[in-house]
Design a protein that fits this description.
The protein is an alpha/beta fold and 380 residues long. It contains 16 helices and 13 strands. The strands form four sheets. A five-stranded parallel sheet has the order 2-1-7-8-9. It has a four-stranded parallel sheet with strand order 4-3-5-6, with helices on both faces. Helix 11 links the parallel strand 8 and strand 9. Helix 1 packs parallel to helix 11 and helix 2 packs parallel to helix 15.
Length: 380
């Protein structure tokens, strides 16, 4: 298959759905007693709703939306620290666009920009590097945010800054890793999960073996999936086949992109530049051991936390969610977005209370954008 259209073929989709329905019947999955499958990646959540897969699959298959949106799991305290750095007169603060409108305790980066802070949207950390070259009298800070998917590009940029001795460039590191929060969810006795659809882009970097513990220690199947409708339907089918057969394995549906052992160049850059933090705070999950990355001492000159005495360098600081905001419960699969009393009312894309409504991978944004009647009903 070479073209996207081949992964959206209605005839192939109907055949997969027929097999999914048959398997759901075989394992006794019903509306009252469904199979709970968590799609970890926010990109998968949006694809499920964009293509209506939640409506096409049988009622016995229930999608649970996991903590797979790095913007969404960022705690409010880190947003506040971004604003604090950005408002320093000597700083040019650079960030990806989907972080601009994420609310902090008092304001978002977009609001800080409207008040005069020099905040610029970039498409790559290399853009921030170029700004540092052109503005040697300014401190250029890049908001390093994302899972293993975006971590290599930030690491390579830090390496390049070191080679050029661009000491007016630094990274506010908020890179996080996928496996630890999955373990935290599996350790939650109240969490009902039967299997996982694993992230495709993250796995392109780290491979499939970091998920071995899910099958080996917890006895849950996981299938790494692509992002087209046929990818997701086939992945759901593969999870159901494992459940029917009593198997728990790590399978790779997205083999056309994801290598078993990941990308060696990316992994080497990550290993050179970063080390694991003792712990890192996740929205809805709290502090999770060894789930975040920090810049190694070798590259300390490019660490904004150290340079500005902020973040974990200044001590852990937690901020409570706004009253009525259910982002934490939605992020951990305990609540559907439409179950939040603020959804579509006090929280909209124009006036968000939480990150899940504004992020391009947020579950609330997916429900609001593609939910149709559900979103309208919740907003009444």
């Amino acid at each position: 298959m070479k073209y996207a259209e081949e992964f959206r073929d209605p005839k192939a989709a109907k055949a997969l759905l027929a097999r999914i329905n048959t398997l759901a019947d075989e394992i006794g999955a019903t509306k009252e007693k469904p199979v709970y499958i968590m799609e970890i990646c926010g990109g998968h959540t949006h694809a499920i709703f964009r293509y209506g897969l939640d409506k096409l699959t049988p009622e016995g298959v229930e999608f649970i939306h996991g903590p797979g949106c790095p913007v969404c799991v960022l705690p409010m305290a880190r947003v506040d620290e971004c604003v604090e750095i950005a408002e320093k007169p000597e700083v040019i603060f650079t960030t990806f666009g989907d972080a601009m409108r994420v609310p902090g305790q008092k304001k978002s980066l977009l609001q800080a920009k409207s008040e005069g802070a020099d905040i610029r949207m970039v498409y790559s950390p290399l853009d921030a590097l170029e700004l540092a070259r052109r503005n040697p009298d300014r401190e250029v800070v890049f908001f390093g945010l994302g899972f293993e998917t975006t971590t290599p590009s930030t690491a390579l940029s830090i390496q390049q800054a070191a080679r050029e001795n661009l000491t007016n460039f630094s990274v506010f590191c908020n890179h996080i890793t996928v496996p630890p929060p999955i373990k935290a969810l599996l350790d939650d006795p109240h969490m009902m999960l039967d299997g996982f659809v694993g992230p495709g882009h993250v796995s392109m970097v780290i491979g499939t073996h970091p998920y071995d513990f899910i099958a080996d220690e917890y006895g849950k199947p996981i299938v790494v999936a692509g992002f087209e409708p046929l990818d997701l339907l086939q992945s759901v089918l593969m999870v159901l086949e494992q459940l029917r057969d009593g198997r728990a394995e790590v399978e790779n549906q997205y083999a056309r992109v994801v290598p078993e052992h990941g990308n060696s160049v990316s992994l080497a850059a990550i290993e050179d530049v970063y080390e694991l933090r003792p712990s890192f705070e996740w929205r809805g999950l709290g502090e999770i051991d060894h789930s975040g990355l920090r810049i190694r001492d070798t590259y300390r000159a490019f660490d904004a936390e150290e340079k500005f005495g902020i973040g974990y360098a200044a001590g852990v600081r937690s901020v409570q969610e706004p009253e009525g905001c259910a982002c934490g419960a939605v992020m951990t699969g305990q609540l559907k977005p439409t179950g939040c009393p603020q959804f579509g009312k006090g929280c909209t894309p124009e006036m968000p209370l939480g990150a899940l409504m504004v992020s391009s991978e947020g579950a609330c944004a997916a429900y609001y954008q593609y939910g149709g009647a559900r979103a309208a009903e919740a907003a009444e």
